């Protein structure tokens, strides 16, 4: 067990997320003394953790070789932004439907049903297309879903129709998260040894929650800083911020990530074992 890594990473994450999230509600915003203090402490602990994990402990909580897999680092960074947009969408879409569109709680539940149905269809049907379409193309489709989920709410007019704006936003939302999450897990299972797959899967899940926590904190800052524009425009500013994050994640995927279509092929462990066996036979000959 990597106790130093655990004892450093948890308070670092808590302090950074708290400083960002609470800055919108602190008495003097970022000028409130404890906000920059907690942020600085969190960043210092994060820096110490990176040093300890990379050069001190023998069995680090997050080994560096996980990121040596080709495209792993840019994929994780892209997912940090993309998953962050999901958290913004889930919160502020509900607030917009409730505060601006006047929807009741049960009506909001009904309006969100397309996300549940779409998620079920994509989860079940994903196996039918993952081996037919290159993963990069699917990832770009997912990115477009993230972009669309924010863009439809950013441009919705007062009195906008559910079927013209909210419904397609819900479809885009489920396209974004369900394709990218499944695709990331397929990428991990085929490119990492069995001993690292659980760790990498945990990394993807941590990226999901950390992305939501951090980006949602900045979304609250956008909402607070634009509150003088009125509730509608303040919400729209948040959705434009969400759209910008999704576009940034998409650009990272376009320029730095390449994922093949899923195939029924040997795992990394099996390929390495076969290579070692072949080398052994060559030596015997």
Automatic annotation (TrEMBL):
Transmembrane stretches, start-end: 33-52, 73-96, 108-130, 137-156, 162-187, 199-219, 239-257
Entry's Gene Ontology cellular component terms: membrane
Membrane-related topology note: Multi-pass membrane protein
Pfam families reported for this sequence: MFS_1
Entry keyword set: Membrane, Transmembrane, Transmembrane helix
Subcellular location: Membrane
Keyword Protease: no
One term of GO molecular function: transmembrane transporter activity
PANTHER family listed in its UniProt record: MAJOR FACILITATOR SUPERFAMILY MULTIDRUG TRANSPORTER MFSC (PTHR42718), MULTIDRUG TRANSPORTER, PUTATIVE (AFU_ORTHOLOGUE AFUA_4G13820)-RELATED (PTHR42718:SF36)
Protein name: Major facilitator superfamily (MFS) profile domain-containing protein
Record organism: Penicillium crustosum (Blue mold fungus)
């Amino acid at each position: 067990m990597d106790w130093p890594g655990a004892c450093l990473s948890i308070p670092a994450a808590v302090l950074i997320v708290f400083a960002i999230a609470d800055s919108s509600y602190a008495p003097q915003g970022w000028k409130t003394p404890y906000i920059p203090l907690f942020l600085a402490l969190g960043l210092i602990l994060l820096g110490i953790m990176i040093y300890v994990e990379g050069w001190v402990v023998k069995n680090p909580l997050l080994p560096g070789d996980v990121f040596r897999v080709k495209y792993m680092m840019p994929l994780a960074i892209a997912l940090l932004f993309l998953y962050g947009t999901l958290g913004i969408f889930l919160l502020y879409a509900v607030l917009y439907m409730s505060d601006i569109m006047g929807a009741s709680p049960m009506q909001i539940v009904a309006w969100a049903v397309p996300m549940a149905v779409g998620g079920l269809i994509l989860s079940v049907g994903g196996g039918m297309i993952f081996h037919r379409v290159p993963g990069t193309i699917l990832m770009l489709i997912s990115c477009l879903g993230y972009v669309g989920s924010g863009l439809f709410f950013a441009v919705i007019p007062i009195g906008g129709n559910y079927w013209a704006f909210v419904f397609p936003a819900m479809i885009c939302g489920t396209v974004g998260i369900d394709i990218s999450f499944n695709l990331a897990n397929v990428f991990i299972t085929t490119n990492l040894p069995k001993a690292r797959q659980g760790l990498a899967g945990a990394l993807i899940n941590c990226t999901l929650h950390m992305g939501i926590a951090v980006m949602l904190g900045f979304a609250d800052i956008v909402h607070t800083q634009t509150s003088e524009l009125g509730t509608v425009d303040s919400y729209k500013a948040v959705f434009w911020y969400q759209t910008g994050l999704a576009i940034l994640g998409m650009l990272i995927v376009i320029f730095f990530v390449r994922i093949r279509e899923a195939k029924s092929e040997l795992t990394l462990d099996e390929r390495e074992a076969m290579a070692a066996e072949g080398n052994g036979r060559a030596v015997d000959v």
